[in-house]
Amino acid sequence: MSGGLTRRSLLGAAALAGCTPREAPPAPAVWVGASHERGHLLREGAALPAPAVQRRASVLVLGAGIAGLAAARAFGRQGVDDVHLLELEDQPGGNSRGHAIAGMACPLGAHYLPVPGGAAREVAEWLHEIGLLKTHLGRTVPDERHLCHSPQERIFVDGAWAEGLLPPVDPGSAAARQMRSFAQAVARVSKPGAFELPAHRSRWSAELAALDTVSFARWLDAQGFDAPELRWYLDYCCRDDYGAAADTVSAWAGLHYFASRHGFHAPGEGEAEREGLFTWPEGNAWLTKRLIEPMGERLHTGRVALRVTEQRQGVEVLAWDVAGQRVEAWQAQTVVLALPLFVAARIVQDPPEALRQAVAALAWAPWLVANLQLDAPPLDRPGAPPSWDNVIYGSTGLGYVDAMHQSLSAVRSATVLTAYRALPQAERPALLAGSADAWTQQVLDDLARAHPDLPRRVRRAELMRWGHAMAIPRPGLQRHPALAALRAARGRIRFAHADLAGCSVFEESFTAGCEVAQPA
Ligand SMILES: Cc1cc2nc3c(=O)[nH]c(=O)nc-3n(C[C@H](O)[C@H](O)[C@H](O)COP(=O)(O)OP(=O)(O)OC[C@H]3O[C@@H](n4cnc5c(N)ncnc54)[C@H](O)[C@@H]3O)c2cc1C
Known about the structure:
Blueprint: H1 7-16, E1 30-31, H2 36-40, E2 53-62, H3 66-77, E3 83-87, E4 98-101, E5 104-107, E6 112-114, H4 121-129, E7 133-136, E8 139-142, E9 153-157, E10 160-163, H5 174-189, H6 206-211, H7 216-222, H8 228-242, H9 251-259, E11 277-279, H10 285-292, E12 299-301, E13 303-310, E14 315-321, E15 326-337, H11 341-347, H12 353-361, E16 364-374, E17 389-392, E18 400-402, E19 415-422, H13 428-433, H14 436-447, H15 454-457, E20 458-471, H16 481-488, E21 493-495, H17 506-515
Parallel strand pairs: 1-20, 2-3, 2-15, 3-12, 9-17, 15-21
Antiparallel strand pairs: 4-5, 6-11, 7-8, 9-10, 13-14, 14-15, 16-19, 16-20, 17-18, 18-19
């Protein structure tokens, strides 16, 4: 890890770059967003004081991420009017929470939702309800005001920016040929219904099962796809969507990324169709807000679910009320665990065998999200103009999105850049122990390759570290019997979380939340 981003080093950079001494000094970098000490309450063996409060609910949902909020909504639509939600953090939304620096909204985690495909019918129905999708002359059309504005993406290669995220290659090169064959390979496996999102609605086949037995990297090797530009891009896509590299995710997952959405377009093979996607300065917190609003006082934040016990008449949940510093005892007919499965396994007493097996099969990727408040946009290099998503070729980071990209102002001014990094699991201890300054420095070292003046533009750096951000779709997870059993559980204790899909995207979480309210 490189040296810390100290106030002195930033001021030094500013002085070298000729800033006036009147400029306010940059603030030290800080961690935001996660209350790790609350998570520590979950450690086994902690003695609990006697409950100070008794509460009742027909349905109690634990975890107010997208899955939990969707579950609460789904039960409500079935006429259950006392659905309550307990959320560990003070702010609901889980990985889809937002943040703000100096009044400028920015994401803490998830930041976009593609226009949903046909299998994500509950997502589409809800988007109609909140006005993001409309029916016009019999066709479904997205509300363009919320679609990502153009230009959407660019990549920094050899000192210049190029449009799109695929590294530019000579049309006659081996890399270009391999890109064309990879496009054909994606088209070959993209049979109708084969790669749906949510994935469990895909039509499973021997071919898909085989793809789920090997890593994407091994599959690419076997097919002869070895061009560095193609391999870097595919690896980037895996890290960006799944939090892990191509040698870790399954070939099924690597292909699903393209086949379930927009396909793969080789350069020169017709105009690459831009994926229609919704995004907002605060990322998917815009969506989260629409799910939270109807919950009113039935959403209880700052409540750490500590113990879930099935009893003869229902389920008892003991939760720690952080503000009240006391234990609450809840009695519910049905409890939905809408939290990561490794947390569920810790708090459910006598956990079902499927829960143990699912946790043993899953691995979670750590992520770092760095929000950098700039006093002015960074100087640009030649080539494609500033875009929503800006990626550096060869980087281990995932680039940055610009919070002001959706602004309609013609003049670029102060902004917040949100830089993303999916880290190898081995780096989790360093992420959790490291200083915010040191991690900011790593992010700046990376981005300064494209924007050398960036370090002196930064006024504040606010970082979110996700220790177990998302389940990695490793080989063997699709159709894993333990995950399928948890998804199907319709007793008093039920499960709804992206983990059930073995990967983490909005469509999976929302659908899991809707399905958990359905009868078996
Ligand atoms: C950095 C990052 C970027 C992402 N970007 C995108 C994106 O752009 N688009 C996209 O579709 N997806 C993205 N994702 C995936 C994202 O995880 C999903 O879209 C979705 O938000 C997951 O929701 P969930 O409800 O399944 O899980 P979570 O978000 O994990 O929700 C679980 C909730 O349970 C709470 N909880 C945990 N333990 C307890 C307890 N003991 N008691 C009470 N509550 C508890 C947590 O605080 C949390 O609020 C991203 C994820 C990350 C980490």
